[in-house]
Design a protein that fits this description.
The complex is a heterodimer. Chain A is mostly beta strands. Helices cover 0% and strands 54% of the residues of chain A. Chain B is mostly beta strands. In chain B, strands 2, 5, 6, 9, 10 and 11 form a 6-stranded mixed sheet that branches. A 3-stranded antiparallel sheet of chain B has the order 3-8-7, with no helix packed on it. In chain B, a hairpin with a 7-residue loop joins β9 and β10. The radius of gyration of chain B is 13 Å and the shape is globular. Classes of the chains: A mainly beta, B mainly beta. Chain A binds chain B through residues 4, 31, 33, 35, 40-45, 48, 50, 58-59, 90, 92, 94, 96, 100-105, 107-110, and chain B through 4, 6, 9, 32, 42-46, 49, 51-52, 86, 90, 94-102.
Chain lengths: 116, 109
């Protein structure tokens, strides 16, 4: 299994440009999430999905869109990039541990995005 | 409000010294606490979860509901423990994690 994969690894955008960060998982996990990682702020949840066709907002959703047409893929779209969106973006998928409420999250390698 | 606080941005210790990475949380219900680790140029990975009460790579963490803490401890630090450590909390919807700001552990030879 490849686990959680993300493309691209690095990206530079100009202010106002749009782009899509790709995320895929091959573990048949129901749950997928997008986080951004900023120095001194840890990871913050952008959007998440509990299954194909179902998405919801996290802590910092503004400026981002998501969709979940298949179990495997969960792309993150930046509609009009801004310098404040310069960050490292992590995708994660998760499942519920047997007999528990615990959902172990598996992370992708991250995408480092710079907006100039 | 749900919150995770890691008061130390950087913790530097010598090899063989004990390590304690602090984590305090704020949550009104019964939380589930995790420690995630990110080694240099690697992805985040789960280190510990309080519910399993396990020891991984010599690290342990005990949930103290009275002090609302979930500190990560290791009696003898190794150089390979140098990494970024994140404490995380999940509440009713356990697939959503709230992360602390992280502590960078540097173990010097």
């Amino acid at each position: 299994n490849a686990g959680v994969t993300q493309t691209p690894k690095f990206q530079v955008l100009k202010t106002g440009q749009s782009m899509t960060l790709q995320c895929a998982q091959d573990m048949n996990h129901e749950y997928m999430s997008w986080y951004r990682q900023d120095p001194g702020m840890g990871l913050r949840l952008i959007h998440y999905s509990v299954g194909a066709g179902i998405t919801d907002q996290g802590e910092v959703p503004n400026g981002y869109n998501v969709s979940r047409s298949t179990t495997e893929d969960f792309p993150l779209r930046l509609l009009s990039a801004a310098p404040s969106q310069t960050s490292v973006y992590f995708c994660a998928s998760s499942y519920q541990g047997a007999g528990t409420r615990v959902y172990e999250q598996y992370f992708g390698p991250g995408t480092r995005l710079t907006v100039t | 409000a749900q919150r995770v606080t890691q008061p130390e941005k950087l913790l530097s210790v010598f090899k063989g010294a004990p390590v304690e990475l602090k984590c305090n949380y704020s949550y009104s219900g019964s939380p589930e606490l995790f420690w995630y680790v990110q080694y240099s140029r690697q992805r985040l990975q789960l280190l510990l979860r309080h519910i399993s009460r396990e020891s991984i790579k010599g690290f342990t963490a005990d949930l103290n509901k009275g002090e609302t803490s979930f500190h990560l401890k290791k009696p003898f630090a190794q150089e390979e423990d140098s990494a970024m450590y994140y404490c995380a909390l999940s509440g009713g919807s356990s697939y959503k994690l709230i992360f602390g700001s992280g502590t960078r552990l540097l173990v010097r030879p």
